[in-house]
Amino acid sequence: MFIRPDFFLERLYKENIPKYSFNADTESEWRIWRDDLKKVFVEKMGGFPEKKAELNPRIVEDEDLGNYIRQRVVYTIMEGLDMISYVLIPKNAEGKLPAVVACHGHGYGSKEIVGLKFDGSPKTDGPTYQKNFALELVKRGFFVIAPELLGFGDRTLEADGDKAHTGHSSCDLISTNLLMYGKTMAGMRVYEVMRTIDYLFTRSEVDTDRIGCMGISGGGLVCSFASAVDERIKVSVVSGFVNTFKDSIMSIHHCIDNFVPGIIKYAEMPDIVGLIAPRPLLIESGTRDPIFPIDATEEAYRRLERIYQLLGAGDKLDKDLFEGDHMISGAKAYDWFVKWL
To answer: Which candidate, 184, 177, 172, 173, places its Cα nearest to that of 47?
Structure first.
């Protein structure tokens, strides 16, 4: 008897053969696989607007903090929706700077990775699991932009605004509304990163041939998915996310913003992350991460190795599997950007 649905779900996965599971043997086969998967992946995320809205960028805060300048900027993502981001600019740097898009994870938004409390005052009680990684990047001479991703911090729904300082997000209601329109939160946030890169192209300080992306947890999803579809991202560091769908979001409770309806019919997570190849990619994962199991991270890494090796780019893939749980490591991450950007 199969009254409980455990066997049914297992059978669904075993009988499902993703259409674009990587099996290329030549570079020309890889190119076809990459182009076809990228197209369907964008479609499954809900697609992007055919016409870009004017960015209309404006600086709303500007503060000199000694070794770097911190700005807050606003620019338009699409009609009726603006983005607010922190920009960190190292002082006394010469020439155009390499830039990194820093994608925060679940918490109270971009303030959490630039050393601030939610009210904008300096954080004095030490870093959270995200370890102020935007600050670590600007210390190393990178122009850093930390977008406030949709549904977090100052970009929660008005009804959730009073709770945003505690890390309460609007992921659930925004995501379910988007799903009713055939869109996804993942697709919206990826597009926000793409528009953030458009903004970087307007900044005279930035060398637009040297743009990277780093993200943790939900920001790791955004970083990896954006890097997969936008080749303007030259270097990527993904922390606390790379795994398999089967062993993470399909087996352990995760926020609804992780789900892309129907994607498993076309690809597993390593296939999607593999679209980043042959560009440099570093994966961070804690050995005790409770929501992205380390064994599945290692399986995903083995599958990524095959793609990178086919392209003769084995030196552009690396991992930092550290003792710890769901958090930033940084042991290799910042040097990875220094090396490749």
So the answer is: 184
Q: Any idea where the domains of the chain sit in the sequence? A: 6-340
How far apart are the C-alpha atoms of 276 and 272, rounded to whole Å? 8
Contact 29, 45 (CB under 8 A): no
Residues contacting 172, CB < 8 A, separation 6+: 255, 256
Answer whether 258's CB lies under 8 Å from 292's CB. Answer: no
188: Cα separation from own chain's centroid: 12
Instruction: Write phi, then psi, for 61 (nearest 5 degrees).
Output: -145, 150
Concatenating the DSSP letter of every residue in 272-291 gives HHGGGTTS-EEEEEETT-SS
Q: Return the residue matching tokens 């062993």.
A: 247
The 3-class SS string of 124-184 reads CCCCCCCCCHHHHHHHCCCEEEEECCCCCHHHCCHHHHHHHHHCCCCHHHHHHHHHHCCCC
For residues 166 and 155, what is the distance between their CA atoms, to the nearest angstrom? 14
Tell me the C-alpha distance between 187 and 195, whole Å: 12
Q: How confident is the model at residue 126 (pLDDT cuts 50, 70, 90)?
A: confident
Distance CA 45, CA 41 (A): 6
pLDDT per residue as tens digits for the range 306-336? 999 999 999 999 999 999 999 999 999 999 9
Handedness of CA 298, 282, 103, 327 (dihedral sign): positive
Selection from 49, 74, 70, 44 nearest residue 59 by Cα = 74
Which residues touch 156 (CB under 8 Å, ≥6 apart)? 163, 164, 168, 169, 170
Structure-token pair, residue 166: 């505690």
At residue 94 the predicted structure's pLDDT band, cuts being 50, 70 and 90, is confident
Annotation: CATH topology of 6-340: Rossmann fold (3.40.50)
As a 3-state breakdown, the chain gives helix, strand, coil percent values, each rounded to 5, of: 40, 20, 40
Is 51 exposed, middle or buried (CB count within 10 Å of its CB: 0-12, 13-18, 19+)? exposed
Distances in Å between the Cα of 131 and the Cα atoms of 204, 247, 327 are 29, 26, 8
